[in-house]
Write a structure and sequence with these properties.
mainly alpha, two-stranded antiparallel sheet, 2 strands, globular
Length: about 325
């Protein structure tokens, strides 16, 4: 009978010690312990960051980039934040806009929290101790995302996942003057479906008092005065009760809106409605922030190729040319 003996001479490093472990004496004081740990661990993290800067990330999945962005914000890792934002910006399209907006809101909350990261922050030296750079980058990506939402408003507001957004996100999107919706009924239907979903999340019955409680200022988001009389008085809009039937507007409010719609349809002068209910939405003139080659291309193409951008300088030149011609005719 043969007996085989196995002798373990060396255990795998990963099984015994954490990745960034450093051999610090255990009998030193607390102050000395903190001073002793930081340089070694920080040095290890900075080596990781330097390697990442030398070899930029190649990520084809926006979801993975969003997950990495959350981690980068938590660790205050500027190089990783920048790369993730660039990757996401390059891939902005209608299919991911809702996910991006939602995740950016979470990242914004993280960047404002007063917490100590589990590892030393990996940030550029000139920004040490200042997390404003995180919020600036997040805001810039959010800006570009909102511009894309403006362009594809109908598809975004009708998306089932729109109801999963936070109240602040829904409010910011639906109240934008540059939101390019085919009809204000799209906005109305979106906020009503969101309200029902919010009641469900809060385990509330979708009764009128609860709907009005969760809607808050969203009640004013649709531009009711821009609806036709038929749309405004509809019994149902996309499966939801119409504005005059749902009860989210007081009787005095919906009667005033109805009067406005009737008078406007007859081209009669009428006082504008409050809460921007009668203010038309228009194509915006804002340019995207330069976060990637895609946003840079859109910004440069804005005056000539992108119909969703307006070039104020170009308009001024056209006006001056017309004025010049007009003066020449009557001179």
């Amino acid at each position: 009978m043969k007996i085989t003996m196995v002798v373990v001479t060396n255990e795998p490093y990963g099984e015994t010690e954490p990745l960034c472990w450093s051999p610090i004496k255990k009998n030193i004081s607390d102050d000395e312990d903190e001073a002793g740990k930081t340089p070694t661990v920080e040095h290890a993290y900075r080596n990781i960051t330097s390697s990442m800067q030398a070899d930029p990330l190649e990520i084809s999945s926006p979801k993975l980039a969003l997950d990495l962005l959350s981690t980068a914000v938590r660790l205050q890792n500027m190089p990783l934040v920048k790369q993730c934002i660039e990757i996401i910006d390059k891939q902005l399209d209608p299919s991911i806009l809702i996910s991006v907006i939602s995740r950016l809101s979470d990242c914004s909350s993280r960047s404002r929290d007063n917490f100590e990261p589990s590892a030393p922050p990996i940030i550029e030296s000139q920004n040490r101790g200042n997390i404003d750079w995180v919020q600036d980058l997040i805001n810039n990506l959010r800006h570009n995302c909102l511009l894309e939402i403006d362009r594809y408003a109908d598809a975004i507001l009708k998306d089932l996942f729109f109801s999963t957004l936070s109240y602040n996100d829904v409010l910011q999107i639906t109240t934008r003057d540059s939101l390019q919706v085919s009809s204000e009924t799209v906005v109305y239907s979106a906020i009503m479906k969101w309200a029902h979903a919010e009641c469900y999340r809060r385990t509330l019955q979708p009764h009128l008092p609860n709907l009005k409680a969760v809607l808050r200022d969203l009640v004013h988001a649709p531009r009711y005065g821009l609806m036709t009389k038929k749309e405004f008085t509809s019994r149902k809009i996309d499966g939801e009760k119409g504005p005059t039937k749902s009860g989210i507007l007081d009787e005095k409010e919906w009667r005033r809106i109805l009067f406005y719609i009737r008078e406007k349809s007859k081209n009669r002068p009428v006082e504008e409605l409050p809460f921007r209910w009668s203010t038309p939405r228009s194509i915006g003139s804002e340019k995207p922030k330069l976060l990637s080659s895609k946003s840079a291309r859109r910004a440069s193409d804005c005056p000539t190729k992108d119909l969703n951008c307006r070039n104020e300088n170009r308009c001024d030149k056209v006006f001056l040319n017309i004025l010049t011609c007009w003066t020449a005719i009557f001179d």
